[in-house]
Amino acid sequence: MKTIEKKDEVYSAVERILDNYLEMNNHRKTPERYAILRAVYDMEGHFTIDELGEKLAAEDKFPVSRATLYNTLNLFMELRIVIRHRFQGTTKYESCYAGNNHCHQICTVCGKVSEIKVPELASVIETMHLKRFRKDGFSLYIYGICSTCQGAITRKSKKVKKQNTKT
After folding, report:
1. Quick check: 7 pLDDT over 90?
2. pLDDT at site 167
3. From the centroid of its chain, how far is CA 45?
């Protein structure tokens, strides 16, 4: 129950940010912008533009054009309520109003991305004093090889060694 309430609080806060921006800049409050905002904050973790479009069309019964998705996500990034990640060969987005400080493990073999919590690192970064710079959050990328890929590489290596010793 608390997570639903927290999710509603976060959504209300980002909706106010969007409302204020649209009003101050004399932009229209279109249903598409709010549907996309709701869908983004309903998504769990990272998502692609295609996944967001599919969610809007299938689950929310609110299909929007690819151009509308790109333009709206660009607006959300400008408002700092969405962050864009450029992982190996793919672009993914993520809501970032609440809890945007985290680390990513990225496998350089299969491209799998997983989030990890490192409270010690978060504490160090949050207490850092930077000159002429206001921190909003951070995202750290750690590149390496996941255990699945490492196991496959090890098995393949053993197989090759075994074949070489036979000849």
Report:
1. no
2. 61
3. 6
C-alpha dist (Å) from residue 152 to 147, 157, 161: 9, 8, 14
Query: Residue 80: left if φ>0, alpha if ψ -120 to 50, beta else—which one?
Result: left
Tokens encoding 23: 């009003």
Say which residue the tokens 């009003």 belong to. 23
| Residues 6+ away with beta carbon under 8 Å from 39 | 52, 55, 56, 60, 62
Q: Is 87 or 147 the better-scoring residue by pLDDT?
A: 147
Sign of the CA dihedral with 107 first, then 113, 119, and 122 last: positive
User: What gap in Å lies between CA 7 and CA 68, rounded to an integer?
Assistant: 25
pTM, to two decimals:
0.77
Tokens of 161: 């060694």
